[in-house]
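Late entry, evening session. Most of the bench is empty. Finally got around to the prediction I had been postponing all week. Sequence below, unchanged from the version circulated by S.P.
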Amino acid sequence: MNNNDIFKKLRVALQLRDDQIVAILELVDFRMSKGEIGNFFRNADHPNFMECGDQVLRNFLNGLVIHLRGTKEDPKNAMDVIKQNQEAVKKNIADTEAKGELNRAKTKGEFKPKADFTSKPKTDLKKKPFKPKDKKLAQKVQVVEKVQYKNGKNKKS
C-alpha cells in the first residue's frame, strides 16, 4: 500500500473534499493547489497522476490532527468535526438534487421514451409435438465434387 492509497482511504473515510484538504494542509503552513491534490487521487495510468510523497502525507496527517482535535489552546471534539463534515456532504447532495429538479421543471414538457416498455400479454402458443414422420429425409448432396487443387510446383511421380 503506497501513500496515494492511504491518502485516498482517509479522504473517503472522513468525507473530505479537495478544498477541505487544502485548508487542512494550510493549518501546518503547507500550501498546495486543488489541482495538485486531485492528481494524487487519479488512476496510476492517467497522464496527470502524481506520486504522493512522504512529506505531503506527513503534513496532511499533522494538519488532520489539528483539524480534528484542535490546538492545546482551542481543543475540539473529533466526532463533532466529522459530523459537521457529514452534514455538509448531505447538504451538498440535497442542493444538487434540488437543482436537478429545477432543471427538469424548466424543460419544455416531460421526458417521453421513444418506445413503450410496458409488458405485453403473453399468448398461449403451444408447441407442436415433434413427429419424425412429418420431416422428409433429404439426401446428402456433395457441394464440392472431385476438385483438384493445383497449388505450388508440379510434383514428379
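Two things to note before I forget:
The helical segments are 3-14, 18-26, 34-40, 54-69, 78-106.
The first helix runs from residue 3 to 14.
Will write this up properly tomorrow.
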